[in-house]
Specification:
six-stranded parallel β-sheet, OB fold (Dihydrolipoamide Acetyltransferase, E2P), alpha/beta, 2-enoyl-CoA Hydratase, Chain A, domain 1, 17% strand
């Protein structure tokens, strides 16, 4: 009789156990604003779930909203996902506001935990830009576009179109119970495991095909946001990116005006790089960014060209125009007027400070080299006349001459330098 390996028996038992055959659900967690990093994170998670044959993707969400452009990318990823997507407003006390409403409605299964709420999807400007007639017209267009977008999502997922429209137009909200009654969501569950048990056996359309959820006893596999996504998630805030760019400009400006300071240049360089990374993930208007780059060039040129402040003024004007045009306003991103004014005052103040320091340095008497000896007081070491002599000045012995006779030991003052000789007179 052959000996049977205990290891082989254990492996066979594991493979035949219910645990080995349990379906897997990939869990993504969105507990912040919706931005380009969020969009990339969700898309990456869906691709992983498809590649590794997960039964579904579960997005746990608690968000106040975010960028409309990023929301569109997320909705597109969910609607075209090859695996079923469940959006779950969780934990209790969480909410799905603004962009979160669009994402919730786009899911194959929309769920909420008790004590959560959803709604208020009216588009707003990020950054608190001041309102004017043009701004109001622009926001009206953005609102109409958002209404069309959310209605299309609701129709595709067979949800309450009227409620979805009012969430944008009137910023209405709903509790979990109200959302279920209004057919905005499909189920209420206290925990993710309870949710998966409740929807087991449900059917949903995935890329035109009917799919049955096999989620009873499923293993929840967390897909945490990577360090890269976390960094971008922090940087991808319109006003933070703008402030980093301003710090970068000031740092480089101070370094060039005071060569060798090192610290301003290092801080400025790092800030510029971080701002550039952030701008890759934000709806940037190229014209506005070019105006700010031009402003930086003009302000730096002012340090080296005697234009009496003309280039500096032109640079500040270019900076203001670039700030106003920096972000694509149709995305709902508008820089706060107070931030622009404060930044302009800081930039202008820095230019005035550096200009004042340079002016003071030019006025200050030279203290090094031969020129630094002008006006210095010393002592005649020998008798000095037109033929010459020696003096002790500034801790050094110098050959000197004088138009009048100076006796040994008398104090002298340096009138001028003449090559390696000093012209002196009696003090």
């Amino acid at each position: 009789m052959r000996k049977v390996s205990y290891s082989a028996i254990i492996i066979l038992l594991l493979l035949s156990s219910p645990l080995a055959a349990a379906p897997k659900v990939l869990v993504l967690k969105i507990f912040a604003t919706i931005n380009p990093a969020t969009s990339d994170y969700i898309q990456s998670g869906i691709e992983k779930a498809s590649r590794e044959n997960f039964a579904a993707v579960l997005i746990e969400m608690d968000t106040p909203g975010g960028l409309l452009t990023s929301t569109r990318e997320i909705v597109k990823s969910i609607l075209n996902s090859p695996v079923p997507v469940i959006v779950y407003i969780y934990p209790p006390g969480a909410h799905a506001g603004s962009a979160g409403v669009f994402i919730t409605l786009s899911a194959n299964i929309a769920a909420m935990a008790p004590g959560t709420n959803i709604g208020a999807a009216h588009p707003v400007t990020i950054g608190g830009g001041s309102k004017n007639k043009n701004q109001e017209e622009l926001m009206k267009k953005v609102e109409n576009d958002a209404v069309a977008f959310i209605k299309a999502i609701a129709k595709v997922r067979h949800r309450n179109v009227k409620w979805a429209q009012n969430a944008v137009r009137k910023s209405i909200t709903a509790t979990a119970q109200e959302a279920l009654k209004e057919h905005v969501i499909d189920v209420i569950a206290t925990t993710p495991l309870e949710l998966l048990e409740k929807i087991n056996g449900w059917r949903a359309t995935v890329r035109g095909n009917m799919v049955t959820f096999n989620t009873a006893g499923a293993l929840l596999v967390d897909y945490p946001m990577s360090t890269r996504y976390k960094i971008v998630n922090t940087l991808a805030h319109p006003e933070l990116a703008y402030i980093l760019m301003l710090i970068g400009m000031l740092g480089i400006y101070f370094e060039l005006s005071h060569p060798g300071a090192i610290l301003p240049g290092v801080v400025g360089g790092i800030s510029i790089i971080l701002a550039a990374i952030a701008f890759q993930f934000l709806p940037i208007n190229t014209g506005g960014l070019l105006l700010i780059i031009l402003a930086m060039i003009l302000i730096i040129l002012e340090l080296f060209l005697p234009t009496m402040g003309v280039l500096a003024v032109a640079g500040v004007i270019s900076f203001i125009l670039g700030s106003l045009l920096l972000y694509n306003k149709s995305s709902g991103v508008v820089l706060s007027t107070s931030v622009i004014i404060t930044s302009t005052v800081i930039l202008g103040g820095a230019i005035l400070l550096v200009s004042y320091l340079i002016y003071q340095a030019h006025k200050r008497q030279v203290r090094t080299g031969q020129e630094g000896l002008m006006g210095e007081i010393g002592e005649a070491v020998t008798k000095i006349n037109g033929k010459g002599g020696k003096v002790f000045v500034h801790g050094e012995y110098w050959n000197a001459y004088s138009d009048s006779t100076v006796k040994k030991g008398e104090q002298i003052i340096v009138e001028k330098t003449d090559g390696m000789k000093l012209k002196v007179k009696k003090y």
